[in-house]
């Protein structure tokens, strides 16, 4: 009985009701005293993720690669060479950074190629690995075409590369939504309650954040007269990220505690402030001022990065208290019982 009281305290299952009686309307004292929410032997129910800062950095870099590839494809199709170059090189840099952070965090980095041995549609990790593999060649060809020296551009390999750059860039942009969102699916399909409980909203948060970072990078690197598509993309992405994040906060139950307190709260609040500032700068001053465009782009990039670090920190924190595991599980079981009773 004592152990059950420890386990279920906080869900209303660890106390007995007080019965009314005499003594001025005061009831009897509860038989089971208040108890803290602890697991057996004081150990967490779930093992805390062993990932370090490289994983949220990988999440951000992948989003930047996806967003920049869309900006680059739009710039290519509308005749904006400097924005196209910035987007293509930013996409390749984000892709390489993402792969580095992911592979370096593996226990045996030299065996990263084993993730390509099979394709398992039910595994977000397997699907994500193949999305990265499909995205990489297009982004790489388009970026390398921008790096060919002028004196080599008349050679047949350079001409072939130049003709391949546009279809390669467009193919990367077509795969970009999958790259931007699969990391959210990967996190939310773990047992970590801080990620699993927000699985319906997190892909929209990450996709909007990726668009904001890609547009912000284009605004930072391209001249104002060419950065129109980047500004539009950044504004839409930032607005989408803020709305999705607000929706996520409203739908959180008990797990919202880890997002509203501590380090995760500070990171996500800073992300919100920077994203709002970047959105306002993008709409109000970026089209007129090169400095304003650069500052807005930097704010959007920083906000996007802090969003990933905040979500990561919230997930890690949620594994340290067993109530975030037990209470939602019991609530889901109770809801299933009610649904079954209603259906019967």
TrEMBL record:
Pfam families, sorted: NrfD (PF03916)
Domain of life of the source: Bacteria
Stretches for region Disordered: 1-30
Transmembrane annotation, as ranges: 55-77, 89-107, 127-148, 169-192, 204-222
Database matches in InterPro entries: Electron_transfer_protein, NrfD-like
Cell location: Cell membrane
UniProt keyword Signal present: no
UniProt topology in membrane: Multi-pass membrane protein
Alphabetically ordered keywords of this record: Cell membrane, Membrane, Transmembrane, Transmembrane helix
The family this protein is said to belong to: Belongs to the NrfD family.
PANTHER family in the cross-refs: PROTEIN NRFD
Protein name (record): Polysulfide reductase NrfD
Protein source organism: Pseudonocardia humida
Taxonomic placement: Bacteria, Bacillati, Actinomycetota, Actinomycetes, Pseudonocardiales
